[in-house]
Design goal:
- Helix content is 29%, strand content 27%.
- The chain is of the alpha+beta class.
- The chain has a four-stranded mixed beta sheet with strand order 10-11-17-14. Strands 1-9-8 form a three-stranded mixed beta sheet.
- The protein is elongated.
- The structure holds zinc ion (ZN) (2 copies).
- One zinc ion binds next to loops.
Length: 360
């Protein structure tokens, strides 16, 4: 088995370290060994690379679990440690926390390692250009559809250097770290894994002087104003993908709609429900009330005599329209009972009860 590095040792943390502890250790070491702080120091560059690898493998719980399994299995060169690691993880553990079916499609642990840690590079770069945001949508805009403005800080290609990271007039030389490839590989033997070069940030070239606008990163954050179209009948949690509206003009913008509750309406499928109060006399004698609809109009609704509390009336076609179907508006009546009565009113109510033979 080809040896692999001990990432825990690289970061100087215990095997039981929490993700937080790993992050802290990584930040401290990355600061210390960053190429910018150690110009012309190949050892620091190498160390920096190793720290990045270790952090990459241990900061993601899934990757870490797989790495732990491989590590226990002996697929690394632990300095003076037993192949199963100092905790003495038993082969029983091994079989319970690792799914052997994963191994089926790989030529061996070496290939498995590459496929866990190697192929992520390209995917992650694509994902980096995707910008995700949530957008609060008022209830009525979600129901009827509309457009909402949004301001986002989005990375764009630096206008000064067009993304090269070089100051105007700077000379460009091939990156000594990756020899112009833009990627570096780590590991030995069966573990040939590529990742973006930390020294040139994957560009393969290093300028004699960095661009002052973007500090060499090749990108700048700008505030971008967008008008987002909210389709009619949008439900809470719906996501839309806007191609090419993400970072650097090539990533996507992923917008999640958070539909805000309304004080009057609530939604049930394509129907909208509202509660309207009437008084006890209106309920008993019948009446006409005006009810607000989704589109802001007021329609007249006839309440028949003897209407009971909680009775629902349907206003056809005043619900949410989606995919050619249209829901209704359901009006639920609440019957308000007078809270205070004058002695005169009380007597009137008592004589009413006596005529009706009602107990009180
Ligand atoms: Zn620039
Ligand atoms: Zn490089």
């Amino acid at each position: 088995m080809a040896p692999q590095k001990d990432y825990y040792q690289t970061l100087g943390v215990a095997e039981t370290a929490t993700t937080d502890e790993i992050k802290k250790a990584f930040r401290r070491l990355a600061k210390q060994h960053h190429p910018d702080r150690n110009p012309g120091n190949p050892q620091a560059a190498e160390k920096f690379k190793e720290i990045n690898e270790a952090h990459d493998a241990l900061s993601d719980p899934d990757k870490r679990k797989k790495y732990d399994t491989l590590r226990r299995y002996g697929a690394y060169a632990g300095a003076g440690r037993s192949p199963r690691g100092p905790t003495g993880g038993s082969s029983d553990n091994f079989s319970t926390d690792f799914d052997f079916s994963d191994l089926g499609s790989f030529g061996g642990l070496g290939d498995l390692f590459s496929s866990i840690f190697g192929r992520k590079g390209a995917e992650r770069e694509d994902q980096d250009d995707t910008v995700e945001t949530t957008l609060a949508v008022p209830f009525r805009v979600a129901a009827l559809g509309g457009k909402l403005p949004v301001t986002l800080a989005i990375a764009e290609v630096c206008p000064t250097c067009s993304g090269s990271g070089a100051a105007p007039g700077a000379t460009i030389s091939t990156c000594p770290e990756c020899k112009g490839r833009g990627t570096v590989s780590f590991g030995q033997g069966g573990f040939a894994v590529n990742r973006p070069c930390p020294m040139c940030r994957g560009k393969g070239k290093i300028p004699s002087q960095r661009c002052g606008t973007c500090q060499g990163s090749g990108e700048v954050r700008i505030e971008k104003q967008l008008l987002i179209t909210v389709p009619p009948g949008t439900e809470d949690g719906t996501k839309v993908r806007l191609r090419g509206q993400g970072a650097k003009g090539k990533g996507d913008l992923l917008v999640e709609f958070k539909v805000e509750p309304d004080t009057f309406f609530r939604r049930d499928g394509l129907d909208v429900i509202c509660v309207v109060p009437i008084n006890v006399v209106q309920a008993a004698l019948g009446t006409k009330i005006k009810v607000r609809t989704l589109d802001g109009r007021r329609v007249v609704l006839r309440i028949p005599p003897g209407t009971q509390p909680g009775k629902r009336f349907r206003i056809a076609g005043q619900g949410i329209e989606k995919n050619g179907r249209r829901g209704d508006q359901l009006v639920e009546v609440r019957v308000d009972i007078p809270e205070k009565l004058s002695p005169e009113e009380e007597n009137a109510l008592k004589s009413f009860a006596e005529k009706k033979g009602l107990k009180y």
